[in-house]
Amino acid sequence: MQLIIIFSCVFQAILIFCWVYVRKYQSRRESEVISTITAIFALAVALISSALLPVDIFLVSYMKNQNGTFKDWADANVSRQIEDTVLYGYYTLYSIILFCVFLWIPFVYFYYEEKEEDDGNTCSQVKTAFKYTLGFVTICAVLLLIGAFVPLDIPNKKNSTEWEKVKLLFEEFGSSHGLTALSFSISSLTVIGMLAAITYTAYGMSALPLNLIKGTTSAAYERLENTEDIEEVEQHLLRIKSKCRDGRPLSSRDRRTVQQLEERLRTLRRRERHLESIEKSWWTKFCEAIRPLKIVWGVFFIIVALLFTVSLFLSNLDKALHSAGFDSGFIILGTNLTNPLNMLLPVLQTVFPLDYILITTIVMYFIFTSMAGIRNMGIWFFWIRLYKIRRGKTRPQALLFLCMILLLIVLHTSYMIYSLAPQYVMYGSQKYPVQSNRTIDGQPRNVTFVSKDCDADAPEDQCIVTRTYLFLHKFWFFSAAYYFGNWAFIAVFLIGLIVSCCKGKKSVIEGEVDEDDSDMSDDELSVYYR
């Protein structure tokens, strides 16, 4: 009963956060009920899905005592039921993600695009949106068909006990073609999520803490500079217009210059209004008051980011040196090269529930750094910038893209956590009893049992592998792609860290005022600075 109450409170908190986040960034002039509901629902699904990993680890660990024995209620049937329940939870949420990515979000996106281009009847807009959405549905159907018939038998190396153990785990995982098809589709999306994580999460992990540390420029100082720029542009305009006082027309070059200067002047005056609102707002004064706290959080986040990067590097290096190779997807059971996170989690296991708090914090950290990366970079298609994410001025299509990207990143988060702490993700805090014989004068005198952390050498009936681990490694070629993606993630993080260190302070209205904004957009943003 208590668990139900806790889950209910968490669910309500997630919905409230999603509503506040979407309403904070969406444009007031272009907001639509259907796009708002879709964005809130998709964001909530992303956050709820990210909570599956800590729950999975907790359940397999909760079935055993500290001495390595199973609890009285955790017999073979009960443990199997718990494992199946977690597995069905994964497939249920992942099916919802498939529905969102391939049907709901594309339909709402194209429906809104058609509404902007044609203000005709709703029936025509729905038909056109369905027509474009069929392309996404076709892709999903193709992935499901490939997944249903893709061969899982991989030519393994001879005398490779590592791979034989993995094959046994796969056989235990089941061979249903329907579940395999769904798993293949989700794994395909996870690869796309990996690319999104490399692009946005890696950059967000460096940009978010450094922005907190460096802060923003002073609104008063920016107003002074902006006033000087306005005066300079006005003087330049007067010099050019003075050429036609005697009735002579301006040259085409001067006319283009005047047009550019007038656009520049409108932008500077909008900046002046925004800077004045920010300088007088209570929010600015509050942010200045908590500036030391922001610096502390920034230092903490950069330490955490460096800890993650070092752990990821050591884990990938371990796979490169000790795994069965490319044909097995660089799968490795156990840990040969330890990393800081793998060292920290066993220490925290001694005090319940510190290890679960840490793993949940890590998952949330990835989600929020991904949000920060998307917010700072905007949404890109290769070298083309599609949308910007701006407070109070984000278009509905951009919000839908943001939520879709977060859904894909969440799918990849589980593998990122596994890469950081492989032993913990496989077994959690499980232990198993090992017989220890005491000898006196070479003769066995006393037989005792000591508990040992579960690893690849543990008996199969003594340690339960999480469903997360088996799900991640169902297809060896996806595991190989994730392995190389981790190296790319490390490289992008380091590049982003260097770029963020070299950049100066952000403007206090960074990204809030652009030349293509209308004067009406000022009213949308003013509500945040009163």
UniProtKB/TrEMBL annotation:
<dbReference type="GO" id="GO:0031419">
    <property type="term" value="F:cobalamin binding"/>
</dbReference>
<dbReference type="Pfam" id="PF04791">
    <property type="entry name" value="LMBR1"/>
</dbReference>
<protein>
    <recommendedName>
        <fullName>Lysosomal cobalamin transport escort protein LMBD1</fullName>
    </recommendedName>
</protein>
<feature type="transmembrane region" description="Helical">
    <location>
        <begin position="132"/>
        <end position="152"/>
    </location>
</feature>
<keyword id="KW-0813">Transport</keyword>
<feature type="transmembrane region" description="Helical">
    <location>
        <begin position="5"/>
        <end position="22"/>
    </location>
</feature>
<keyword id="KW-0472">Membrane</keyword>
<feature type="transmembrane region" description="Helical">
    <location>
        <begin position="179"/>
        <end position="203"/>
    </location>
</feature>
<feature type="transmembrane region" description="Helical">
    <location>
        <begin position="475"/>
        <end position="499"/>
    </location>
</feature>
<dbReference type="InterPro" id="IPR006876">
    <property type="entry name" value="LMBR1-like_membr_prot"/>
</dbReference>
<keyword id="KW-0170">Cobalt</keyword>
<dbReference type="InterPro" id="IPR050854">
    <property type="entry name" value="LMBD1_LysCbl_Transport"/>
</dbReference>
<keyword id="KW-0846">Cobalamin</keyword>
<dbReference type="GO" id="GO:0005765">
    <property type="term" value="C:lysosomal membrane"/>
</dbReference>
<feature type="transmembrane region" description="Helical">
    <location>
        <begin position="356"/>
        <end position="386"/>
    </location>
</feature>
<keyword id="KW-0175">Coiled coil</keyword>
<keyword id="KW-0812">Transmembrane</keyword>
<feature type="transmembrane region" description="Helical">
    <location>
        <begin position="295"/>
        <end position="314"/>
    </location>
</feature>
<feature type="transmembrane region" description="Helical">
    <location>
        <begin position="88"/>
        <end position="112"/>
    </location>
</feature>
<feature type="coiled-coil region">
    <location>
        <begin position="251"/>
        <end position="278"/>
    </location>
</feature>
<keyword id="KW-0458">Lysosome</keyword>
<keyword id="KW-1133">Transmembrane helix</keyword>
<comment type="similarity">
    <text>Belongs to the LIMR family. LMBRD1 subfamily.</text>
</comment>
<feature type="transmembrane region" description="Helical">
    <location>
        <begin position="398"/>
        <end position="418"/>
    </location>
</feature>
<dbReference type="GO" id="GO:0061462">
    <property type="term" value="P:protein localization to lysosome"/>
</dbReference>
<feature type="transmembrane region" description="Helical">
    <location>
        <begin position="34"/>
        <end position="55"/>
    </location>
</feature>
